[in-house]
Design a protein that fits this description.
The structure holds two protein chains of two kinds.
Chain A (H helix, E strand, L loop, with lengths): L1 H12 L7 H11 L12 H36 L11 H14 L2 H5 L3 H21 L7 H25 L4 H8 L8 H20 L1 H7 L3 H6 L4 H23 L5 H13 L3 H25 L8 H22 L6
Helix pairs in contact in A: 1-2, 1-3, 1-14, 3-9, 3-12, 3-13, 3-14, 4-6, 4-7, 4-12, 6-7, 6-12, 9-12, 10-14, 13-14, 14-15
Chain B lengths: L1 E10 L2 E11 L4 E5 L6 H8 L7 E6 L2 E2 L5 H5 L2 E4 L11 H7 L16 H10 L15 H14 L4 E5 L7 H18 L2 E5 L3 H7 L2 E6 L2 E6 L1 H4 L2 H8 L3 E5 L6 E5 L13
Parallel strand pairs in B: 3-8, 3-9, 6-7, 7-8
Antiparallel strand pairs in B: 1-2, 1-4, 4-5, 9-10, 11-12
Helix pairs in contact in B: 3-5, 4-5
Classes of the chains: A mainly alpha, B alpha/beta.
Chain lengths: ~325, ~270
């Protein structure tokens, strides 16, 4: 938590207009109504940069990172599949189809910003069902087959989204950035959309953390110990997809966050989901704040899409996990 | 304790269990035996309430097994599955505390201090020195002991065992059943075990229930069940039944068929 706070503040001070950390702190504290005395101690443009531009963007990174990591932890737990994540399962792409449709054809202005996550959730769920149907052979789901199905569906849906982009009359450049995953140009209204979903999704996953621990030994085993297996699976899958949907609606497909973060958390604290779930949320926030800081500063003033940064980190990580699975076949999560 | 009336189960149109009727008393140790595909594991799954019967009734203490809430049932019925625990990145100690799940709130907490309970189970199963070891670093036999310790921690009144000795060396097989038997007698547990090995079943069980092609063929004390005719009818092999030289319990000696050339009859 402290690490997260520190990351936010440091990241706030990094940018094309450099501000010292002390000034960032000062501006932040001034914003708190019970501390700020209203006197203009700070340069107005600095205040604007911190509160208007950077703070909202960084908070969005915090929330989206938490959403994606939680979704990844949820998928991994309930599917007993260490390679599962919103991106590798194709759910993120599924959500992006719904979101892209609304954004590209301009329906969002008519029905409001809230409809995007809802529609994205719908297409995400449909995608998940299709991926499961592809992967399931005689009731059993193999780890690799499931991911393969996810990748196939993702390739198809990716092409479909590109097709929609080429058909639309919108400014293609802007859409391309969204497609590659980015939180540039997002503001407070986006933060306000993500927050309620996270406030609902987070406790739900915490509530099911202990049943997820029992899933490690198999579904039957969990049932014998008193877990309502079908209900648990349904709720965790729905929640994870919902969190993915809202994240994708705001930032496009930012891949591999839900894969990398829960695994790093596992390396640190072990396999207990009561720790993995909350720490993944915090870890995901930290991870995405830094990834986004890197995205906007590495080649400043040019910006790298956030999805590119996370993929450059995430894909090799995925390869490493796959390799490790191969070397100790049948190994535990 | 357990009552089945006309208990029938079909899976995808195939009749797996055909109108079973029997009663199992409190505090007994029962064995379910029969050839592969006779429906033994299906019967055990109905008893554990995970599956519901297609028709007929199976009641546990007067209430249909499938009508209990999952957590409610797990507070007094424990199941030891075939093959034991899958490897996982948990320590033995953590696995045992997961065994308390039916009594825990959503945070995994319980009012009662379960430390002594877990320690006793570790001690009984000879696992104290492995308490901090991750279970994916244990051998198959050790994992099976952990699995049994976990159901002990659950403090059940009814224990269901699904071929608990499969994949174990003979030393572990006897050791495991010894432990179960001792525990059963001390705590007055009811135990129902699906067993493959008829000789072990004859030794440890008070009564044996014989299934053949989904039907109940016989239900009685080992001395009534383990006899040449019945074994031939159910398993399709002629075996010799002799009393165990030490315990006197009927034991089977398998016998190759005469035309195989493996037998030279003596005298």
């Amino acid at each position: 938590m402290l690490l997260l706070a520190a990351s936010i503040v440091i990241s706030l001070s990094i940018g094309s207009a450099a501000l010292p950390i002390s000034e960032v702190w000062g501006i932040l504290i001034d914003q708190l109504p019970w501390l700020g005395d209203g006197s203009a101690k700070w340069d107005e443009s600095s205040v604007a940069i911190v509160t208007q531009v950077r703070l909202s963007r960084i908070l969005l990174a915090v929330l989206v990172g938490a959403c994606l990591s939680l979704a990844g932890a949820g998928f991994q737990g309930v599917l007993r599949n260490p390679l599962a994540d919103p991106f590798t399962l194709g759910v993120a792409s599924g959500c992006s189809v719904g979101a892209a449709f609304l954004i590209l054809f301009g329906y969002q202005t008519i029905v409001g910003i809230w409809t995007i996550p809802v529609v994205a959730f719908g297409t995400g769920m449909i995608t998940l069902i299709v991926v499961f149907a592809l992967a399931r052979a005689r009731g059993a789901m193999n780890v690799e087959t499931l991911i393969l199905s996810g990748v196939i569906v993702q390739a198809f849906l990716g092409a479909f989204v590109s097709f929609m982009v080429s058909m639309s009359s919108s400014v293609v450049n802007e859409i391309m950035f969204w497609l590659m995953g980015s939180i540039s140009g997002r503001g407070w209204e986006h933060v306000k959309v993500v927050l309620p979903f996270l406030i609902v999704g987070f406790p739900v996953l915490i509530r099911f953390a202990q049943p997820l621990n029992l899933f490690v030994f198999g579904e039957r085993h969990a049932a014998h110990l008193g877990v309502q297996v079908e209900r648990t699976k349904l709720i965790v899958l729905l929640t994870s997809t919902l969190l993915t949907a809202v994240a994708v609606s705001m930032t496009g497909v930012v891949g591999f966050v839900g894969l990398v973060v829960p695994h790093l958390v596992r390396l640190l604290v072990g396999s207990d989901y009561r720790l993995i779930v909350p720490l993944s949320a915090i870890g995901g926030s930290i991870y995405l704040v830094w990834a986004d800081t890197l995205a906007r500063t590495a080649l400043s003033p040019k910006e790298i899409p956030l999805g590119v940064v996370t993929a450059l980190i995430g894909a090799p990580f995925f390869a490493y996990l796959l390799y490790r699975r191969k070397t100790k076949q049948g190994g535990a999560i | 304790m357990i009552e089945a009336r006309e208990l029938t189960r079909t899976i995808d149109g195939n009749l797996i269990l055909d109108a079973l009727t029997f009663t199992m008393e409190h505090g007994g140790m029962y064995g379910i035996i029969g050839p592969n595909g006779a429906g033994k594991s299906t019967l055990l799954r109905l008893m554990s309430g995970v599956d519901a019967p297609t028709s007929g009734e199976l009641t546990l203490e007067g209430k249909a097994a499938s009508a209990y809430g999952r957590k409610e049932l797990a507070r007094w019925v424990a199941v030891l599955q075939q093959g034991g625990l899958d490897p996982a990145n948990f320590t033995v100690q953590e696995v045992l505390s997961l065994g308390r799940y039916p009594f825990q709130n959503w945070l995994g907490e319980e009012k009662r201090d379960t430390g002594p309970l877990i320690d006793r189970a570790l001690e009984q199963m000879g696992l104290l020195h492995l308490a901090e070891r991750k279970i994916d670093r244990l051998s198959g036999g050790e994992r099976q002991r952990v699995a049994l310790a976990k159901v002990m921690v659950q403090e059940p009144r009814l224990l269901l065992l699904d071929e608990p000795t499969t994949f174990l060396d003979i030393g572990y097989q006897v050791g495991l059943l010894d432990t179960v038997k001792r525990w059963q007698q001390e705590e007055r547990l009811t135990v129902v075990a699906v067993l493959h090995d008829l000789n072990l079943a004859a030794h440890y069980c008070d009564k044996l229930l014989v299934l053949h092609e989904g039907r109940l063929v016989a239900f009685g004390a080992p001395a009534e069940i383990i006899e040449t005719e019945l074994i031939d009818r159910v398993y399709g092999t002629r075996a010799v039944v002799v009393p165990h030289p030490v315990t006197g319990v009927p034991q089977l000696l398998l016998q190759p068929s005469a035309e195989s050339g493996a037998v030279e009859t003596r005298g």
